[in-house]
From TrEMBL:
It is a peripheral membrane protein. The active site is at residue 181. This is Dihydroorotate dehydrogenase (quinone). Catalyzes the conversion of dihydroorotate to orotate with quinone as electron acceptor. Substrate binds at residues 70, 115-119, 178, 183, 248-249. It comes from the Bacteria. FMN binds at residues 66-70, 90, 145, 178, 219, 247, 271, 300, 321-322. CDD domains: DHOD_2_like (cd04738). SUPFAM superfamilies: FMN-linked oxidoreductases. Its EC number is 1.3.5.2. Gene3D superfamilies: Aldolase class I. Belongs to the dihydroorotate dehydrogenase family. Type 2 subfamily. Binds 1 FMN per subunit.
Length: 341
């Protein structure tokens, strides 16, 4: 079915296509029997898929990466597609429009995307309010991906992260600290050891409410050197956070086949060209740390074989985004069936 409509969506601007797809999913969901129809087509459940990671029980290890549902607008609809977990965000304390359009580009020959969205979102309070009223909340685990506003200087970034952390604490199951997007000026400087330790230690100090704490994960860039990855391992162990998401988008343009006017666009590259590097980062972190913490693998997962490769490299869970756009919603079911086999 998706193969039939995909060419129509790919004629549209990527952002326009995104809102048409999510709007269409919502419209079907509102029709009597629509939700059940979508579940029958795309939802696959099996006891063997269950995973217990950083104290949480996931019904399956396939999640939707941050960026697809920034404002927690479509969680109920996305649950029907069979995801084991959904990560909303990146959210910031104050609403912000993001970078100027156009800011997302398809590199079809490479099955990739370049985006420079710039943390466009309606603000953390809007997302928190929506999450309080999710009808299918018990069916899925939700992660909150948090960042800083563009206008916040790096010296004050910790205040933005704590603001988002406090606002989402009661409505998410885990947190992701995003300091690795290439689309907010200076953000990746926060991946350096000293500022990162400060942010993570501050969040850990606040990580208790009514006897409950939330797993905190760190999302890292694929462009880090091995020495920087060694620092990440030290930071994770030292701060006691729950794990790492590897990886965010890359600034590399190596080996692309799309037209030069596309490949020269600034922003983060995702999709198939990222697959090898993200797997290398997962394997390095897993082996060098002696499997000391869980890793969520993301980057270039377009097939069940790609997912199995990430898991074999040391990932405990995986997330899709660009592969989901190129392959359609049946990708989740295909991966889950392959895992059971």
């Amino acid at each position: 079915m998706y193969k039939l409509v995909k060419p129509l969506f790919f004629l549209m601007n990527p952002e326009t296509a995104h809102y048409n797809v999510t709007g269409g999913l919502r419209a079907v969901n509102k029709i009597w029997g629509g939700s059940q129809l979508i579940r029958a087509a795309f939802n696959y459940q099996h006891p063997a898929l269950e995973r217990k990671v950083f104290g949480l029980t996931f019904k399956n290890p396939v999640g939707l990466a941050a960026g697809f549902d920034k404002n927690a607008t479509y969680v109920d609809e996305l649950v029907d597609l069979g995801f084991g977990f959904i990560e909303i965000g990146t959210v910031t304390p104050k609403p912000q429009p993001g970078n100027d359009k156009p800011r997302m580009f398809r590199l079809v020959p490479d099955e990739a995307l370049i985006n420079r969205m710039g943390f466009n979102n309606q603000g953390v309070e809007v997302a928190a309010t929506r999450l309080r009223y999710i009808k299918k909340r018990k069916e899925v685990l939700i992660g909150g991906n948090i960042g800083k506003n563009k206008t916040t200087p790096n010296e004050e970034a910790v205040n933005d992260y704590t603001c988002c952390f406090d606002a989402l604490f009661d409505v998410v199951d885990y947190f992701v600290v995003n300091v690795s997007s290439p689309n907010t000026p200076g953000l990746r400087d926060l991946q350096e050891k000293e500022p990162l330790m400060h942010i993570l230690n501050t969040l850990q100090q606040r990580n208790m409410k009514n006897g409950i704490s939330r797993p905190i994960l760190l999302k890292i860039a694929p462009d880090l050197t091995n020495n920087q990855l060694d620092d990440i391992i030290t930071i994770v162990k030292s701060t006691g956070i729950a794990g790492v998401i590897a990886t965010n988008t890359t600034t590399s343009r190596e080996g692309l086949h799309a037209a030069a006017e596309l490949t020269k666009e600034t922003g983060g590259l995702s999709g198939k060209p990222l697959a090898k590097r993200s797997t290398e980062v997962i394997r390095y972190l897993s082996e060098k740390s002696n499997h000391a913490f869980p890793i969520i693998g993301v980057g270039g997962i377009h097939s069940a074989a790609d997912a199995l490769e990430k898991l074999a490299a040391g990932a405990s869970l995986i997330q899709v985004y660009t592969g989901f756009i190129y392959e359609g919603p049946a990708l989740v079911k295909r991966i889950c069936k392959a895992l059971v086999k």
